Amino acid sequence: MMHVVFNEPDIDVMSKAMVLDESLIGEIIVVRDDYAVGPLNDIYTAEGAAIRLDWWHAVLLGGDYNNLIAEGKVNDALAVETIKKKLDEDKNEELWIWAAQNKHDVCGYYWLMSQLQAYQGRIYILYLNNLPFINEKGHIFYPNWLSQILPREFTKAKKLARAITNSEFEIDKDEWNRLCNESKYIRLLEGGKKLIQKEIDFYDAGLIQYITHDYQKAHKIIQQFLSKNKETTGDAFLLWRLKYILQDESYEVLGEQKSMKDFEIRKSSATKALA
Fold first, then answer.
1. Among 4, 110, 151, 222, which is disulfide-ready with 16 (CB 3.0 to 4.6 Å)?
2. Among 48, 115, 56, which Cα is nearest to 81's?
3. pTM of the entire structure?
4. Interior CA angle at 38 toward 210 and 127, to 5°?
5. What is the pLDDT of residue 180?
6. Is the pLDDT of residue 229 over 60?
7. Quick one: how far is CA 230 from the chain centroid?
8. If pLDDT is split at 50, 70 and 90, which confidence band does 71 have?
């Protein structure tokens, strides 16, 4: 048995669940890219994959995650090759895809399953869509992320595993191809597995509202956005967009625009005078 998850924290909780339930024991494979942002055109071709990689390099360059460029930690194509190799070598092998109800996991699901139709009947989905679980205090809650679920609750979750049907492989793959061909950069989850797309500047207005006439670290502005806005995304992408916003003369910057804690931002004094 193999398990696919879409976030680093999921590895720990899944590993603990395996200790409690031996029937879950298997290799954990992580799909690390965030397919809820960035270009998707021709993503399954070498050219399309290179365009996406170059885009991520531009996003991460000089920021808090600049090291990821040199280290090359994200290699989802290799993860898919590993999955296919194991499925080819052992006809009894199965793959379980774990996805919570968030745009990151759902986009990862679409990206992955579209490449595995040849193994229909051996690819399972566990989509924790609007399902209640028990938290540490014994209260019912609806998790947005797999890592929010207690390890002991995975025994309940595993009962939801079902094979992805041939019709789902067709319909979901077509839907993903449609999204890939729209040439937009932001994907949002409307409900279920329904995704909509927005332009690359979708989050800009939300960031701008936290820029005041007093200097604040870029880190503080991004954290306010993440804690208060309904629709959010990764801080690396937000930092990249914030740097783009600061090209406008309406803002003043102290420090070098590198990592989130390296520079401060405020509205320009001219803007304050007009106000």
1. 151
2. 115
3. 0.93
4. 95
5. 97
6. yes
7. 16
8. low
For helices 235-245 and 46-60, what crossing angle results, to 10°? 70
What span, in angstroms and rounded, lies between the C-alpha atoms of 125 and 123? 7
**Amino acid identity of 25?**
I
Mean pLDDT, range 253-274, rounded to an integer: 86
Contact (CB, 8 A) for 236 and 38: no
Separation of alpha carbons 151 and 166, rounded Å = 31
Strands 95-100 and 123-128: parallel
Q: How far apart are CA 40 and CA 49, in angstroms?
A: 8
Q: Tell me: pLDDT of 131 over 90.
A: no
Q: Is the pLDDT of residue 64 over 60?
A: yes
Q: Following CA atoms 171, 130, 34, 82 in sequence, which dihedral angle do they give, to the nearest 10 degrees? A: -70
Q: Please, what is the average pLDDT of the chain?
A: 94
Give residues with Cβ within 8 angstroms of 72, minimum separation 6. Answer: none
Q: What confidence score (pLDDT) does residue 205 get? A: 97
